[in-house]
Specification:
Bound molecules: iron/sulfur cluster
Shape of chain A: globular
Number of strands of chain B: 0
Largest sheet of chain B: none
Structural class of chain A: alpha/beta
Number of strands of chain A: 17
Largest sheet of chain A: 6 strands, mixed
Order of helices and strands of chain B: HHHHHHHHHHHHHH
Radius of gyration of chain B: 24 Å
Number of helices of chain A: 16
Strand order of the largest sheet of chain A: 1-14-13-17-15-16
Helix content of chain B: 55-70%
Distance between the termini of chain A: 30 Å
Radius of gyration of chain A: 21 Å
Oligomer: heterodimer
């Protein structure tokens, strides 16, 4: 039974109005480009160019290594300068290909465009794999993995995740307003593979304009439905989204395919559409530059590999000294410690916050107020899990369902004592899951991570 | 102060944050902290206390002040002695102290308030390890101490024009009671527990501001009323139910003390059961053990002791966890 929302969750200040109404602006980078070999879950790609090689826009520069991996393409034309470690947004150094941008954007030759009727599953999967498309909602699972389930006829819901529950992010919203046909076509391509599935476009209830637009465009497609969901964080998380739409529940040991669902994010669908219809590899993505300290909050179509420093410069910089610069939104993002890192396939936003939005909190003892319990969308008791951690009782942690934590951050958000619940619980969960004996069935998802 | 408002397209070479800037997500937190919650609780209690002081005169004010101050002083002294730092900043000690003041009879000597508040805070809170660790409500502990020390004085509600007998006692003695007086608080009662309308107003304020939730009060009300109807020998008679509900500090205890965070369960099901246990226990003590005014003291402290047990046994099933035999089961992991 569908519910249109889930139990738990929080309502953080969403700040979307800052960048919601501004059209997407395309930026052509001028500086050098950096391409990490691993911008996804799985094995890093293997470089197929060497320093000194000339490259064209759209040319593959690193090939997927095995099935659980994604290729990387040059997004500018120029020459390869070096291949080696470079700082990336999470603060670590990773193997990257650095390309000098000649500013001419010479493209490779693209074969003739396809039409929806002449597609079959094998063609779709192959073009998605070749284009290096990954799940751009944050998970980063190579997109062809999802399309390649053993039994596509078991999938009966093909869900387009158009719910952008993360505060400040409006990139998906702009995408839906400006390229609705691409989103819908991406969904139709997926539904070619999952021939029995219904397509569902799940839209946030505050985006009534998008729902109307989608309804108009899908009026004569009997397989596609538009559903509007309650505004709440984390409505866009896989488990909560599937529950709200279908009433089916998923725990942390399961994949959506186990209960007949597949979920793709807006940007992923557009990338699939581009890859399949016009052979275009994943070259650009929409990045929201926003936050109270950003001079001009706005969405940009950015070439992957561009440095965040250049992006911020072109976006007008800061209106005041930011107290925090984030890669991603304030709930799931990471702090950026250097601006000289590249935009990757998973960079959804750069958010610069003022002090009063992310002020220095210090932890005080738990008062047992129960807010974390009411906030947890996975029906855990975070204060109890935290207590188990303090006592170093892994057995209790497991018994209380600690491995079901998705790290969504609702408990930390809601805690009046400002305890770092989600961070601690999720870190412990990740550590435990690496131990195959403890993890049991949970290891199943790890193999895809 | 220089807060440059003009555009600085010139970006810093290195990103510099203030020391102590978190690198732990989520970076955004709710605006309310423990202190603001306790502040709201304090406001509600002050409103209720205002009604009591208006009715019972300056001595009531003195009692409230003394108990608040001595609770704060006791906690500060204990924390200093135990090396726990300044723990009174979150106002929770002040809330407990004022709460004790409000459940004192209006004419008891001032040293009652001092002893009760200090004893309640030390025994009922500090010895357990401070806020969030205590198993029993400090204010109620204070009252229990006072009752066991000064049994007669604590059962005497006389003050000014008000006689020593509370409406609930009169009801049990078979006298008739004016419903209107009970509702407006024009009766002999503890300082804060008589003014029913103020208690309800304060509870609505706390509910709306999210400090307390309705689960415990609602289940307590329902179970208590049901018990009274079933075993009270008066059936549905509204006058009787009204006095039983409004008298004997029941509403005050239910809305403001049973909802205390530390001593109540955190799970939804646990809270329902907790409310039910409190309602039934109070009714049983009143009906079968002849306790009137002090029934809530004993029943609240006993119910407090069940909170941790209820929590352990009412943990919610994690989202998506299957009951055996459900339709979508986890397939065995493939090789
Ligand atoms: S981070 Fe984990 S424990 Fe906290 S609310 Fe999310 S799922 Fe629950
Ligand atoms: S929200 Fe924080 S203070 Fe409240 S019960 Fe959970 S951990 Fe304790």
């Amino acid at each position: 039974m569908p519910h249109s929302t889930f139990f738990g969750g929080v309502h953080p200040f969403d700040g979307k109005d800052m960048s919601k109404e501004k059209p997407i602006k395309t930026i052509f980078p001028r500086g050098d480009m950096v391409y990490p070999l691993k911008q996804h879950i799985g094995a890093p790609a293997v470089p197929i160019v060497k320093p000194g090689d000339p490259v064209l826009t759209g040319q593959m520069i690193a090939r997927a290594d095995g099935d659980l991996s994604a290729s990387v393409h040059a997004t500018v034309s120029g020459t390869v300068i070096r291949i080696g470690p470079h700082l990336v947004a999470d603060g670590t150094e990773q193997e990257c290909i650095v390309i000098h941008n000649d500013g001419r954007y010479h493209e490779i030759f693209y074969p003739q465009t396809r039409s929806l009727d002449q597609l079959n599953a094998a063609t779709i999967i192959e073009s998605v794999r070749d284009a290096g498309v990954v799940g751009m909602g944050g998970a980063g699972l190579p997109a062809h993995i999802k399309l390649e389930t053993e039994n596509p006829r078991r999938i009966d819901y093909c869900i387009a995740n158009c719910v952008e529950c993360e505060p400040y992010l409006t990139s998906d919203y702009r995408r839906m307003v400006e390229n609705p046909a691409k989103v819908i076509n991406g969904l139709r391509i997926e539904m070619k593979i999952f021939s029995r599935a219904r397509g569902i476009l799940a839209v946030d209830e505050r985006c009534g304009d998008v729902s109307r637009l989608f309804r108009d465009l899908t009026r004569d497609d009997p397989r596609i439905y538009v559903r509007s969901l309650r505004s709440k964080y984390p409505q866009g998380a896989e488990r909560q989204l599937i529950y709200a739409l279908t009433g089916r529940t998923l725990n942390a040991t399961m994949l959506p395919a186990d209960i007949g669902c597949t979920v793709s994010n807006v940007d992923t669908l557009v990338a699939i559409n581009q890859a399949v219809m016009v052979h275009e590899p994943l070259l650009t993505r929409i990045v929201t530059v926003s936050g109270d300290a950003a001079a001009e909050p706005r969405n940009f179509r950015v070439r992957i590999g561009m440095s965040i420093r250049e992006l911020l410069e072109r976006a007008g910089g800061f209106s005041q000294q930011p107290a925090l610069i984030l890669d991603g939104g304030p709930m799931t993002g990471t702090r950026i410690d250097s601006l000289d890192v590249p935009v990757t396939k998973l960079t959804s936003a750069i958010v610069a916050l003022r002090k009063d939005r992310c002020g220095g909190y210090h932890e005080t003892p738990c008062t047992r107020c129960g807010r974390c319990v009411r906030a947890c969308p996975n029906h855990l008791v975070p204060m109890q899990l935290y207590d188990d951690l303090l006592k170093k009782r892994d057995d209790l942690f497991l018994r209380h369902g600690g491995l079901e934590c998705s790290g969504c951050g609702c408990c930390s958000y809601a805690c009046p004592s400002r305890m770092q619940l989600s961070y601690r619980i999720y870190s412990r969960r990740t550590a435990l899951i690496r131990d195959p004996e403890r993890a049991g069935l949970y290891a199943r998802r790890l193999s895809t991570q | 102060m220089t807060s440059t408002q003009e555009l600085t397209t010139q970006l810093p070479d290195r990103v510099e944050y203030r020391p102590g800037t978190s690198r732990i997500r989520p970076f955004m937190r709710t605006s309310y902290g423990t202190d603001s919650i306790m502040g709201m609780m304090m406001t509600a209690l002050i409103v209720i206390g205002g009604g009591g002081i208006f009715r019972y005169g300056p001595h009531a004010l003195l009692l409230c002040l003394v108990s608040t101050v001595s609770a704060v002083a006791a906690e500060a002294a204990y924390s200093a002695a135990a090396g726990r730092g300044l723990t009174i900043r979150d106002y929770s000690a002040a809330v407990s102290g004022l709460m004790l003041g409000l459940i004192l009879p209006p004419a008891v000597p001032v040293y009652f308030a001092a002893i009760g508040a200090a004893g309640g805070i030390i025994l009922g809170k500090c010895l357990f390890g401070g806020i969030g660790r205590n198993l029993i409500n400090p204010a109620m502990t204070g009252k229990l101490i006072l009752i066991s020390l000064f049994r007669n004085a604590m059962g005497d509600f006389s003050s000014g024009n008000f006689g020593p007998i509370s409406p609930l006692m009169q009801l049990t003695m078979g006298n008739s009671v004016s419903t209107r007086d009970v509702l407006t608080g024009n009766v002999s009662a503890c300082i804060g527990t008589g003014s029913i309308l103020l208690i309800l107003a304060a509870s609505v304020f706390l509910l709306l501001s999210g400090v307390i939730t309705l689960t415990i009060p609602l289940s307590g009300l329902v179970s208590f009323t049901a018990m009274m109807i079933l075993f009270g020998h008066h059936g549905w008679r509204p006058g009787f139910l009204m006095v039983e509900l409004c008298g004997g500090s029941f509403l005050f205890t239910l809305f403001l003390m049973a909802t205390d965070y530390s001593t109540s369960p955190v799970t939804g099901a646990g809270q329902v059961l907790y409310g039910v246990i409190f309602g039934i226990l109070t009714a049983v003590l009143r009906l079968f053990f002849g306790r009137t005014e002090h029934a809530v003291v004993i029943s609240l402290l006993l119910t407090n002791l069940t909170a941790r047990f209820l929590d352990q046994h009412t943990m919610p099933r994690p989202f998506g966890q299957r009951r055996p035999g459900s339709r979508f089961t986890v397939p065995h992991p493939g090789k």
